[in-house]
TrEMBL record:
Organism lineage string: Eukaryota, Metazoa, Ecdysozoa, Nematoda, Chromadorea
Pfam annotation, one family: ANIS5_cation-bd
Stretches assigned to the SXP/RAL-2 family protein Ani s 5-like cation-binding domain: 39-131
InterPro entries from the UniProt entry: ANIS5_cation-bd (IPR003677), SXP/RAL-2_related (IPR052823)
Signal peptide: 1-15
Name recorded for this polypeptide: DUF148 domain-containing protein
UniProt keyword list: Signal
């Protein structure tokens, strides 16, 4: 049974966005509708056991399904989850293979010197609309490797790091104000883009 794998993979599913293709929804344990509230609470209590091994959890769920006469439904659910996990693995494998090309395109757009900030934002927005999955992975990768990134550090401290949430909104909704002197929010305060030597240079600090 692979229900534990399902719990691990749900968080990795790409969320649906406006104007973007939605992926198939993860399988749901519909067999829980066929049992009472106490049985459902018991089922979730099994899944929340953090001290049991995966093998022990599998055995506990199997015993639970037999006890409440939903063994067949639970097995069908496991099979669906297994197929879903394989599909997800296939999609992620393909995405990883596309990352080098996407990174080259991202860098090409962001480091051109013969464009305005608005032009570059438009180019990044168009790239995201065309291939939002690989774009988001590349975008977040820059965030991971920015100088201020540290698992043990408060990220709200001042630093030369662009606010990804703000830029995400800009890329999603387009530039409402194409004035290149528009202020962009930084971690810890506001700074004009001209003060950072241009948006393409600022990307180095993502």
């Amino acid at each position: 049974m692979k229900f534990v794998l399902f719990l691990l993979l749900v968080g990795a599913v790409v969320a649906c966005r406006k104007r973007q293709e939605c992926h198939r929804a993860p399988p749901q344990p519909t067999f829980l509708k066929e049992v009472g509230p106490n049985a459902r609470m018991e089922y979730f209590a099994i899944l929340m056991n953090k001290t049991a091994t995966i093998a022990e959890l599998n055995e506990a769920v199997l015993a639970w399904a037999k006890r409440y006469n939903v063994e067949k439904q639970q097995e069908e659910y496991n099979n669906t989850v297994t197929a879903y996990a394989e599909e997800l693995k296939h999609n992620v494998t393909n995405l990883v293979a596309e990352l080098p090309k996407a990174l080259d395109r991202f860098i090409s757009i962001s480091q051109r010197k013969d464009q305005t900030i608005a032009d570059m934002m438009k180019g990044l927005k168009e790239m995201r609309e065309q291939e939002f999955e690989v774009f988001d992975v590349v975008w977040k990768a820059f965030n991971v490797f920015k100088p201020t990134y540290c698992l043990h550090r408060n990220h709200k401290k001042p630093g030369y790091s662009l606010n990804l949430g703000r830029l995400d909104d800009d890329l999603e909704n387009g530039l409402e104000n194409e004035d290149t002197s528009e202020e962009f929010e930084l971690d810890g305060g506001l700074a004009e883009m001209h003060g950072l030597g241009g948006f393409s240079d600022a990307l180095k600090f993502l």
